[in-house]
Amino acid sequence: MGRSGGRKPIYLRPTQPIEKRVDDLLRRMTLEEKIGQMCQYSGFSEAHEALVKQGRVGSLLNVTGAKNTERAQKIAVEQSRLGIPLIFGLDVIHGYSTIFPIPLGLASTWNPETVRKASSIAAAEAASEGIHWTFAPMVDIARDPRWGRIAEGAGEDPYLGSAMAQAAVEGFQGRDLADPDTIVACPKHYVAYGAAEGGRDYNTVDVSERVLREVYLPPFKVAIVKAGAGTTMSAFNELNGVPASANRHSLTEILREEWGFKGFVVSDWNAVGELINHGIAGTSAEAAKEAVNAGVDMDMCGNVYQTSLAQLVRDGAVLEEKIDESVRRILTLKLRLRLFERPYVDPERASKALQTKEKLEAALQAARESMVLLKNEGSLLPVKKDIESVAVIGPLADDRNAPLGSWSCRGNPEDVVTVLEGIKSRASPRTKVLYAKGCESEGNSKEEFENAAETAGEAGLAIVVVGEKADMSGEAACRASLNLPGVQEELVETVHETGVPVVEVLMNGRPLSISWSAEHVPAILEAWFSGIRGGFAIADVIFGDCNPGGKLPITFPRAVGQVPIYYSHKNTGRPPSPERWTSKYLDAPWTPLFPFGHGLSYTQFEYSDLHITLKRRGKAGKVEVSLTVENIGGCQGDEVVQLYLRDLVASIGRPVKELKGFKRITLKPGERRTVSFALAWQDLSFLNREMQWVVEPGTFRVMIGSSSEDIRLSDSFEV
Ligand code: BGC
C-alpha cells in the first residue's frame, strides 16, 4: 500500500491541484490497475472482493446501505496497493428513501425548482449512505408511450425536457461536488434511446442527424454543457447503424469535440458486451476495442474491459494513451468528490439524513404540484370535506407498491400513504369512507364487481383508483396496448352505471388511452406514481386543499394506433381536415385525447395584453414577450403559462408549434400578474439544409396558451 512510510505521495495530498494528483497516481499504476478503474460491477460478491483487493475495480453499483458501502470501501482503500477509493453508483431516480413522484410526474409540475429540490434531497439521502453517483436524470425525449421508460423521463418535448434535465443535474450535484451532500449526475441514455422502434425497449433507432440534434440531443447538451453533469451513460440502442455504445460520432465528435465534455462515459449495463449481439463485434475483445475507441470510459457489468483491454493494448489495437485518458477522467471525478479525503460515510450524518420532516414535506409538495386534472365536468371536484360518505374503489386504491413507481431505491412500501389512507385522513371525522378493491390490476376476474357496485351505491361519491402496477412501466416494461390493464375499464363502467358520480384517479407511468372514461366519467385526475406522500396529495386535490396546477408533459392518444402523436409535429402537405384526402385515420380522429400542456384548475385564468418587442437582431438578438394573466375564478390557483412559436416559412419545414417558454405562477382570486419571456437567437434557430444553426428572416407566430391546444393569445413578429 502506498500510504505508509515517509512523506505522503502527491496524489494523497489534498493541497495539491487535482491534475497534479491524477498525473502522480497515473504514473504509479500498472496497466491492469488502470483498466481496473474502467470496470464497474454490480453488488459485492467474493469474486468482486478479490478484484477490489487487486485494484481492479473502479466502481460498484447496487451496493446499498451505509454498512455495505463502508465494508467494500475499506477493502479498496486499506487493502489494495494504491488505495484508490471506489465510486459507488446507484439508480437514484426519484428519491432515495423519501420517494418523490416518478420523473414523468415531476415533469408535470412544470416547475424546475421542484425538480431541483427533489434531486438535492435524493442526493443528500443517498450520499449519507455512501452513494456518490446516480444514474440519473434520464433525459431521453420519448414520444411513444408504449415504451415503458417514458415514466423515467420528462416526456416528449426538448424544451421542457432540457429545463428539467438542467434542474435535476443541478439538484444532484449542487454547487460543488466536494459538498458531502451532493452526488454526481449521469444524464442518460446517450443517445436517442427514446426513439426505439415500435416503443420496444432496447430496440433499434434510426433518426436523421437533424432530428437527433433538434430533438434528442438538446437535453443532453444542457445537462452536460450548462449544468456540468460529471458523467453520461452510453445507451443500449443502435443509432443509425452503429450502436450508441460504439458510436464515435456521438461519443467523441459531438460529446467531446463539439461540447468539450470533460467527465467520463459509463456504458449501460453490459452494453459493451452486447455489441456482439448487435453484430458489430465478433468477440469480447472486438467489443472492448470498439467501445473504448469510440469513447466509452467505463464498462458497466460487462467484464469485457477487464478480460480484453490489456491484451488489446499489448497488441497495439488500443493505445495506452487512450486508456490513460479514460482513467484520468475517472480519477479526476473521484478527486473532485474528495473520495481520497473522505472515503467513508459519516455514521452521524447517515442516521439523521433519511425522511426528515422537511424532506417528507417536500415530497408532499412535489406530489401536489404534479397532479394533472384532466377533466372536471360540472365542477364535480373539489368535494366538500363533510360529504356524508365516499366509496374508495379500485385495485390501486390501497396499494402500497404502485405509488413508488419503478426504480424506488430504498423506498419502502410501508412508508407509502395510499389513496384510501389519504382520503380517510383528510375527510371530516363524520364522513363514512367505504372501500372495495373491485378487481386486480391485471387478470380477468370480475368476481368482486358486484361488491364494488354495492359499495359505490351506498356512497355519495365514488373515487375509483385505477391504472398500472409499478412494474408495468420502467425498463423492459413496454406495452402494445395503452388501455387500462385487465378488467379495470369495466370496473369503472360498472361503478359508473350505479349512477353515483365518479372521480377517476389514474396511477400510471405512461399516457393511457382512456377514451371511454374521458367521454363518460365526469372527473379524471392524473396522479402518476406520486411517491410516498402521494395519497395525501391526491386527497388534498379531491377535497380542494390543493388546487391542481400540473400540466401534461406528454400527449395522451385516444388509441395506441395514433402513436407517435406529439404536439410539435410538422404540418404536412395535407394537414388533417374533414376532407377525405388529408392526413388522418378512417377509424379514429386525428386529435389527441388530451394534448401536451393540458391540465385544468378549480379556478379560471384570463389572458390579455400580449406585447411583443424586438429588442435586437442578429445572434445577440432578443424578442421580449409579455402578457397579463388574471385569476378570475373563486380560489387561489397555479397556472402554467406556455409560449409556443412557429416559424411560418423556412428552408426546412418547421413544426406547427414549439414550446419556447413556460412559467408556473400562483395567483389569488382577482390577482393579475405580468408574465414576461425573452426569446433568444437560439430559440428562433434551426438547422438549415447545410446543417448550420440559423435564424432565417421572415414571420414568426407567437402563441400563448394554457395548453398546446388552448391558445389564448397570439401575434406575429418579423425577423
Ligand atoms: C438501465 C440503466 C440503469 C442501469 C443500472 C440498465 O439496465 O438501462 O438505466 O442505470 O441498468 O442499473
Word description of this protein:
The protein has 719 residues and is of the alpha/beta class. It contains 22 helices and 24 strands. The strands form 7 sheets. The protein has a 6-stranded mixed β-sheet, sandwiched between helices. The chain has a 5-stranded parallel β-sheet with strand order 4-3-2-1-9. A 4-stranded antiparallel β-sheet has the order 19-18-23-24. Helix 16 crosses helix 21. It is globular and about 80 Å long. The chain starts with 17 loop residues before the first helix and ends with a strand. The model has no long low-confidence stretch (mean pLDDT 97). Bound molecules: beta-D-glucopyranose.
What is the CA-CA span between the terminal residues?
A: 66 Å
What is the helix fraction of residues, given as a range? 25-40%
Strands, count: 24
Biggest β-sheet: count, sense, barrel?
6 strands, mixed
Work out the radius of gyration.
Answer: 26 Å
Q: Within the largest sheet, what's the order of strands?
A: 10-15-14-13-11-12
User: How many H/I helices?
Assistant: 22
Name the ligand types: beta-D-glucopyranose
Backbone shape: globular
Mean pLDDT across the residues is 97
Structural class computed from helices and strand pairing: alpha/beta
Uncertain regions spanning at least 5 consecutive residues: none
The portion of residues forming beta strands comes to 15-25%
